[in-house]
Amino acid sequence: MKNIVILLLSLALSLAIALSLYLDDYRLIPGGxxxxxxxxxxxxxxxxxxxxxxxxxxxxxGPFSIDSETLRQHFQLIKDRGIRVIPxxxxxxxxxxxxxxxxxxxxITFDDGYRSMHDILLPLAREFGYPVTLFVYTDCxxxxxxxxxxxxxxxxxxxxxxxxxxHSISHPDLTQISKSGDPQERKRxxxxxxxxxxxxxxxxxxxxxxxxxxxxxxxLQLIEMAQSSGYRRAFSTDYGSNIITxxxxxxxxxxxxxSYSLSYMDMLIR
Length: 270
Ligand SMILES: [Zn+2]
Description:
With 270 residues, the protein is of the alpha/beta class. It has helices at residues 2-23, 41-44, 68-80, 88-96, 116-128, 138-142, 151-159, 174-180, 183-204, 220-228, 262-269; strands at residues 26-29, 33-36, 49-50, 52-55, 84-85, 105-112, 133-136, 163-166, 210-212, 233-235, 242-243, 250-251, 254-255.
C-alpha cells in the first residue's frame, strides 16, 4: 500500500513538471540546456526578448543627447512599468545558460565617457538602483577636457556600481580601417580593440569583458578580432531586442534619440 502511494505521488509530480514545462513552451535537453518547442514564439515573447538601451551624453544637445529631466522620466517609466533593470553581466550569463525570465527585464548602457556620466548619471542610477554599464574610449578620458571623465572619476564610478567596459581607443569607424588589408591598419585595429581593453583593465583595475563597436559598426573580421582579444561579447547599434535562447556574440542595442517621445520609449521597453 505504502509503495503504491509513493508511486502515485511520484507519477503526479512528474506529470506536474511535464505540464509546467509544456506550458512554458520549452523542454530540458541533455546538458541542462533548454530547447524551445515553439521557435516563432521567441521573438514575440517579451520574457525572452531583452532590450538593451544605449544612451550617450546627457546635456540635451544633439540628436543622441537627452537632457537630465528626460533621462529621469525614462528611468521612472521603467520603474512604473515594473521592468527590472539587470546588470549586463547577468544577461550574458543568461545567454550562456538559457532559462526563461518570469518578469520583464532590460539592460541600460551608455557610451563614450562624458563628465555628465559622473555628475548626472551616477546619482540618478543610484537613486533608482539601476546597474548601468558605461563603455568608454580611452582617448576621451586622456584628453583632460572638462566635458569628459578623468581616470579617477572612471574608477570611482566603477566602484560605485557603474560597470566600465571598452569602446576603443580613438573611436574610429573600424569597418573603414579593416577595408584596406594593410598590415599597419591591422595593427591599428589590434590597438583599437585589444589594447583598449588592456588600458582600461590597468587603469580601473578590473577585468574588462565587453566591447562596444564605435558607431555600432562591425563586420566578420572585427568580430573575430574582438573574440581573439578576449572579449566575451561585443555590442552593435543594430535595432531590436536580444533573444536569450540565441547565443549571439554580437548583441543589439536600441539607440535612444533625443527626439523620442515618452510613448515611443514605452513601446521600446514594453
Ligand atoms: Zn561612441
